[in-house]
Amino acid sequence: MANITSRLITGSLWLSLARAIVNGLAALSTFILAWNLAPSDFGVVALGMTILMIVSTVTELSLAEALIRHEAPTESHFSAAWTLNALRGLALALFFAAAAKPAALLFDEPRLTGVMLALGLSVFLSGLTNPRRILYQRDLIFWQEFLLAVSQKLAGFIAAVTIAIVYHSYWALVIGTLVTQATNVAVSYLVLPFWPRVCFRHMREFFSFSAWLTAGQIVNTLNWRFDYLLVGKMLGNTALGYYSVGSNLAMMPTREATLPLTQTIYPGFASIQNDPARLAAAYQRAQALLTAVALPAGIGVAVVADPLVRLALGEKWTSVIFIIQALASVFALQTLGSLVQPLGMAKGATRLLFVRDTQMFAVRVPIMIAGLLLAGLPGVVIGRVFTGICSAVVNMMLVRRLTGLPVFRQLRANLRALVAVAVMAAGVAAAGRHLAHTADRPMLALQLATLVALGGFLYCAATFLLWEATGRPEGPEREVQTILGKLRAKLRPAGRRA
Q: Which of 177, 271, 400, 467 has an alpha carbon within 20 to 30 A of 409's alpha carbon?
């Protein structure tokens, strides 16, 4: 277990570094593109990306997950996975080519034709990615993920920003996506060379694992992307542009703060799937650490959304402030049960995950429609908040079924983080009310930096005091101590050599 933990920590560090770089580039890219493009530009690309995500998920085969869970995949397994992915990519590219014009007519958006043709090429490229690189993930080695993530994001960033600054065109978003995907394919073969061949073996083996998982992904994607199509169709591309940018910025802090751990945790869970006690303990430790990081990231962005948007995006984007405030908070709270996905996959309980996704789909879609009809875009956002909280509760109940951990114990493991983030939010909100409203960008930058520093201090101080007051129990605080201790141990020999 110690070896697995050490590799998980090392992998998380690699991915944390990658996500720090990718997150910085993504945020900078969003800010630059927002200054150079109109909200409707983001809206038309969001429509194409939503269609792409839905169609891609409907045909997703979950081959990487199947290969990770396989006890001893061979070269023929990897060739078979490559063949299936390549054929799927080709079929989707042809579908997008055929559907481009009808989709443009349906949404009354001529620009959507070119966007869909380009995205069809993108999904074709994605099918050519090297499947053999999951060998590193199986062994909890993640330096190659760092190389892939940083290289593709950097290439896409350069392409998108250059076109946005020079041409002020929505094609910046599209070409950035194409360059990102092409770089991903090229680097995947440089990281771990592989010469694929056409192979149709192991089909039943793959599909027996992925059938329920794919069905769940279909429902889940329709569930969480239906509102984009609804807003685009009913409210237009400008409203969809606000909604898309607001949602992405709201999701970014939680996603980037937690992705390094969530990417490493599935192989870790899979390696101890046959030991229920160790699996339950590992889930509780990982989930508590995840929430301790996600809560201040998400809630923190929510309470500083006003100066952040005015500084980074400009006054024309102030409509996204409410979206960020509402959604960043609920995204952070949803991490209370978000690790149920890798947990269920590790235990092979993909049918249960499908049932959960279907239940949430049945709840969420009518709420989204009712919210839009009653209150327009704010109604959709409020609907997402309500259904997001419901999703967190359902996930915790599913964790109880998979591990035997009662919901109360799951919440108790996160109690200090919940109290500390409440102190942080109250303090930052109170301080923000006393700051003068200004449009001066240097002053906005100073106000934002002050609020962020105050929030970080309040959260860390409250967490430490609560930990001390409760007798320094096991929890994320001790996990952080362990990680820092391992880092010091690794850096000390390097310092001596230097």
A: 271
Give 243-269 pLDDT, tens digit per residue. 988 998 898 888 766 666 666 677 778
What is the C-alpha to C-alpha distance for residues 70 and 131, in angstroms, rounded to an integer?
A: 14
Give yes or no for a contact between 210 and 66, defined as CB atoms under 8 angstroms apart.
yes
DSSP 198: -
**Is the distance from CB of 19 to CB of 264 less than 8 angstroms?**
no
For the segment 69-106, what is each residue's pLDDT rounded down to a tens digit? 655 667 777 788 888 888 989 999 999 999 999 999 99
pLDDT digits (tens, 9 = 90+) for 456-469: 999 999 999 999 88
Pick from 296, 214, 213, 303: nearest CA to 463:
296
Amino acid sitting at position 460: C
Determine the residue type at 18: A
158 Cβ neighbours under 8 A, 6+ residues apart = 179
Structure tokens of 257?
Answer: 């703060």
> Going by C-beta distance under 8 Å and a sequence separation of 6 or more, which residues neighbour residue 140?
4, 7, 8, 10, 11, 264, 267, 268, 271
Residue 319 scores a pLDDT above 80: yes
- Identify the CA nearest to 404 among candidates 338, 347, 470, 477: 347
Which amino acid appears at position 176 of this protein? G
Q: Which residues contact 221 (CB under 8 A, 6 or more apart)?
A: 53, 54, 57, 58
Mean pLDDT estimate for the chain = 83
Task: Summarize pLDDT for 384-403 with one digit per residue, the tens.
Answer: 999 999 999 999 999 999 88
